[in-house]
Design a protein that fits this description.
heterodimer, A: alpha/beta, Elongation Factor Tu (Ef-tu), domain 3, Rossmann fold, 2 domains, seven-stranded antiparallel sheet, seven-stranded mixed sheet, 29% strand, globular, B: alpha/beta, Fumarate Reductase Iron-sulfur Protein, Chain B, domain 2, FAD/NAD(P)-binding domain, 3 domains, five-stranded parallel sheet, 35% helix, binds flavin-adenine dinucleotide, binds iron/sulfur cluster, binds FE2/S2 (inorganic) cluster
Chain lengths: 294, 463
Amino acid sequence: MYKILQKRELAPNIWMMEIEAPRVARSARPGQFVIVRASENGERIPLTISDYDAERGTVSIVIQTIGVSTRKLCTLNEGELLPDFVGPLGRPSEFIHDDPATLCSRKILFVAGGVGTAPVYPQVKWLHEHGVQADVIVGAKNKEMLIMQEQMKAVAGNLYVATDDGSAGFKGMVPDLIKELIDHQGKQYDLVVAIGPMIMMKFVAATTKAYGIRTIVSLNTLMVDGTGMCGACRVTVGGKTVFTCVDGPEFDGHQVDFDEAMRRQGMYRTLEQRAIKIAEERAAGHVCKIGLDK
Amino acid sequence: MANKIGRVPVREQDPKVRATNFEEVCYGYNEQEARLEASRCLHCRKPRCVEQCPVSVKIPLFIAEVAEGDFARAAAIIAEDSSLPSICGRVCPQENQCEGACILGIKGEPVAIGKLERFVGDWSIRNGNQSVEKAPSNGHKVAIIGSGPSGLACASDLAKMGYQVKIFEALHKAGGVLEYGIPEFRLPKAAIVAKEVENVRRLGVEIETDTVVGRTVTIDSLMDDEGYEAVFVGSGAGLPRFMGIPGENLNGVVSANEFLTRANLMKAYDDEYDTPIYVGSKVVVVGGGNVAMDAVRTAKRLGAEAVIVYRRSETELPARAEEGHHAKEEGIEFRMLTNPVEVLGDEKGWVRGIRCIKMELGEPDESGRRSPVEVKGSEFDMECDVVIMALGTSPNPLIATTTPGLETTRRGCIVANDEGQTTREGVFAGGDAVTGAATVILAMGAGRKAAQAIDEYIKSKQA
Ligand SMILES: Cc1cc2nc3c(=O)[nH]c(=O)nc-3n(C[C@H](O)[C@H](O)[C@H](O)COP(=O)(O)OP(=O)(O)OC[C@H]3O[C@@H](n4cnc5c(N)ncnc54)[C@H](O)[C@@H]3O)c2cc1C
Ligand code: SF4
Ligand code: FES
């Protein structure tokens, strides 16, 4: 059992939880993720790690309530226990293997979309601790949906903000801001790391390809076990099928088949909608029979 | 008397009814039936059954006690060689092992050794296992990776010798394939698997779930930082194989491991559980082993029309005979000598069918089985909306790649000798992780052998 030490709402429907998980905290590296179960009959939910502290034995996660399982998870409160919290899973970000000299000469731009800000933070923080000031773009729908700005500011080189409606920072999509920085502000990057919704990563990758900048993306596919046992997480990278949970989650964005990945991500969407409906109707006091005839 | 009666039939759920539920297919023998069946055994002086049992259970001896009605004695005799009789009685391929060799099988039907073993195992679960004497602690710590049959067997033998044993399991539940792979209707989880796991715990073995060795901890950290003197790797062969044909990443194509894990471990067939499972209306399962049978019968129970596609002929089906037979009774369609060449998709990227080619049997290959060859121009399409790949599995590379000095074969299997000793000092391995996908009984046997070797290793270090 894993205790919830802290819980905070960062933005509408986006929560941060700090969990007591000493083993995970000790082994976690930037780029890795965890799998969480909120209850004994709950799903195994893959979530990125947004911070970790080996000494205190804690790991933080950020959750956007989009389905039945994430909603259930966020009904739990400080002091309550999670039955399962497994990790760290996946491979760490490749730059942690760089020798210090190479690392220091790197010009890295992170592009975070929405809750993707959370997994970007430990990477930028790790680089900061190793003497590298990386630039960060955070994109969100509007000002209200921006998260972790103060923390990010403390570890980033330049922090740029883009919102769809212009309520904070640059008005427009993150690929346009990337172009703006490179074309008009004289910025140069040799590595872009993009983490956010698949569609955003797809467009960022398309943008950086034109500039020939190596681009890493972190895929949030469907998962069951997270240890390479089921293949639910398989994606095509460079024409080859790989498993996101053990071969990733970070891949060369210019090699990823995003259209296939997005299609596969939606495989259980209709079932999920049905489940939400059942949950809502149950809460309202009667049992929904739609689609239960089979 | 023995030869005068035929094999005592075992009671089973009606095929039509059971094809719609997840309760166990076979009810097993009651006391009268078991004693009657046991009375058929000839107590051969050179029992052929024992020779063919991978762990040499003293079959005629335990059967004699069943015939006498002394089930506790029977259980004690089996326990000398096997630690999981309720499970092996249910899942061993008896027709290729003990029962396949039984002398009575030459002219008639062999003694129902599996059903008798299961009866004895279930009897002792119901009547409380008596073998829980814990040896006094000898102060030595051993780590076990994986809680499948090999890990459980190794752990319980070591615990009985006085070792302080901890099992590290990646998933949230202990049992390995017994829990996530083999379905409820063949191996009840709460009534049997959980009980066997509980017995191991009662010996003082700790089980730490949610711990992925190679990620959460490593073999090195267990030995260097946590004081484990030896490690047993029983991590199984969990990595699913795909065919590498076009269309395999369409929505609706899943591995049998994924399908069965959703159904068994995550209980997706029960509306009280949150994990979804997609069955569509017609499911094609590719493969002919136990895994394929389990997947196709699960799909049927979830309401789909379910078909097996297998590239060899029926005589080569590697599944237990009973499973093939049960599947047919339940209305599963078998398409033999058929091999998929492409999964067909609709414009939205969902499966709409599968293109297969007919096969015929050619020359025997090195395994002695006649290998199937394609019949030119015989391609045909079959409609379906789900394709489940049950083509076999290989060991997960996670442990080997994170443990310096631990050698593997080209097929990814951990190199170990008969006693389980690997190329790394203090590290032992057994079960599917060493052999590739095999059987519960072999995994259990390997775990017990390794326990002996670990005991000798630790003692030799002290000397
Ligand atoms: C669907 C299905 C049906 C089968 N039917 C039969 C049958 O009828 N009869 C029969 O004899 N055999 C059958 N088998 C085969 C049999 O189940 C296996 O041979 C047997 O379970 C192997 O035991 P094991 O202990 O080696 O590994 P497993 O049972 O595979 O257990 C390995 C355990 O290790 C854990 N693990 C893996 N990696 C790590 C890690 N890095 N860290 C921590 N834990 C880890 C896994 O999560 C798992 O729990 C079947 C297999 C399947 C999949
Ligand atoms: S071979 Fe058959 S008859 Fe002979 S001892 Fe074994 S079970 Fe009994
Ligand atoms: S989540 Fe099962 S293999 Fe990746």
